[in-house]
TrEMBL record:
Residues 68-357 form the AB hydrolase-1 domain. It comes from Trichophyton verrucosum (strain HKI 0517). InterPro entries: AB_hydrolase_1, AB_hydrolase_fold, Carboxylesterase_BioH. This is AB hydrolase-1 domain-containing protein. Residues 377-401 have a biased composition (Low complexity). The keyword Ubl conjugation does not apply. Residues 365-376 have a biased composition (Basic and acidic residues). The keyword Transport does not apply. Residues 365-408 are annotated as: Disordered. Residues 1-16 form the signal peptide. Keywords: Signal. It comes from the Eukaryota.
Length: 408
């Protein structure tokens, strides 16, 4: 009896007023990457740890050189990027419209990527936690900026049709972050191998760690990374209370450091700083010199933080840690550039296209810089060659003049 109203609300939401608007046509196919056969204990075999991938291509073909790989966060699936719970079009349509091909995944053991009991214990996030942290934060005011949250469509609580549609899309997830990260790293590397050319990784929340790990495994196949409110801060949990976490700084699973690290808890020397009001941050100590992340150093990175999100108190620390490890990173606080009122699920909110435009400008600005540098280098070389040629022409005349002076 209790389920029926929610079911019919969701049915009419999907079938009625909230159909996706202005979806962009594309060619779609899907495939799986990663995984392996494993003994099921009875002498037969099953396949495990594979990852579902959707490949969306503009109908007229992509016009951008780098594909976009979209990695969703905890308790989510790749549907995050397709369309929004209020019926608006999602970021996949936005980027396809601007000439990008997109690869959308369901994390290993999540959504259409099969979970089997051997993969580990699963958990869920209650609707009330979603309200407090994602959709109705202004009601709860759990952090100073929470009251600024205005961009979630609808009330953001149970019974609101948009909230119910969104919460219906949340799913179970692996409790073990290490299991999740290691299987994503392997499957993500397999995906990049299959694509075969450098991609732009767009990650959200939990998937921030997945992006660092995939890039660490295949640095030559990552053009750039856009991390939307990445998992953090280093070495600890703040909002999601729990034990000491992310022992590798940005991840729970191993990263490649220089000098090399075997035991991060003892070999990564730490210090605590208090450079943000009401927040502290654990980074590497200044002495010995901070260890570097060599596989991530050449990859241009953007971290994006929403004005009203709980990540306002942690993303600055992630950025500080990355800079200390030698990574070139830009940090955009959306509120500082006039994009106001967003929470953690910024790509599902009313002004999501405005945020996507910020990402696109950054991506395309970075694309033009190498070309500009190459052009400038070519022009400088041509100017140098012209100068040398002119000097070569003038040299005989100068020698002849010197000879005439000697005769006089």
């Amino acid at each position: 009896m209790v389920v029926l109203p929610l079911f019919f609300a969701f049915f009419f939401l999907v079938q009625g007023n909230c159909q996706p608007r202005d979806e962009i046509p594309y060619v779609r196919k899907y495939f799986y990457v990663g995984g392996q056969y494993a003994d099921d204990g009875n002498g037969d075999h099953i396949f495990r740890d594979q990852m579902y991938v959707e490949h969306l291509v503009p109908t007229k073909g992509p016009i951008k050189q780098q594909p976009i790989v979209l990695l969703h966060g905890q308790a989510q699936t790749g549907t995050n990027w397709l369309n929004k719970p209020d019926g608006g079009r999602g970021w996949a349509s936005y980027f396809i419209e601007h000439g990008y091909e997109c690869y959308i995944v369901d994390q290993t053991s999540r959504g259409r990527s099969p979970w089997i009991p051997e993969n580990g214990t699963i958990a869920t996030i209650p609707a009330e936690a979603i309200q407090r942290l994602f959709t109705a934060t202004a009601r709860y005011k759990l952090w100073p900026e929470a009251e600024l949250h205005t961009q979630w469509p609808g009330s953001g609580v149970i019974g609101d049709p948009i909230f119910d549609a969104y919460y219906a899309s949340t799913v179970q997830f692996l409790k073990s972050q290490i299991q999740q990260e290691t299987t994503i790293q392997a499957a993500g590397a397999a995906l990049l191998d299959r694509i075969g050319r450098p991609v732009i990784l767009v990650t959200h929340s939990q998937a921030g760690a997945h992006g660092w790990l995939v890039a660490d495994a295949r640095p030559e196949l990552v053009h750039s990374i856009i991390a939307l409110e990445p998992a953090g801060p280093p070495f600890e949990n703040v909002i999601y209370k729990g034990p000491y976490s992310r022992v590798w700084g940005l991840t729970n699973a191993p990263l490649t450091y220089s000098p090399a690290v075997i035991d991060p808890e003892t070999e990564i020397v730490k210090q605590t700083i208090d450079d943000w009001p009401g927040s502290h941050c654990i980074i590497q100590a200044d002495s010995p010199p901070p260890r570097q992340l060599p596989n991530l150093r050449r990859i241009r990175t953007l971290v994006v933080t929403a004005e009203a999100s709980f990540h306002r108190t942690t993303d600055w620390c992630v950025v500080r840690y990355m800079e200390q490890a030698g990574i070139s990173v830009d940090h955009v606080q959306l509120g500082d550039i006039g994009i106001r009122g967003n929470g953690h699920m910024l790509f599902l909110e009313r002004n999501s296209d405005e945020i996507a435009a910020v990402l696109r400008r950054w991506m395309e600005e970075k694309d033009t810089k190498p070309a500009k540098k190459a052009q400038e280098a070519q022009e400088a070389q041509e100017a140098q060659e012209a100068q040398e040629a002119q000097e070569a022409l003038e040299a005989p005349e100068a020698l002849e003049a010197q000879g005439e002076e000697k005769e006089l």
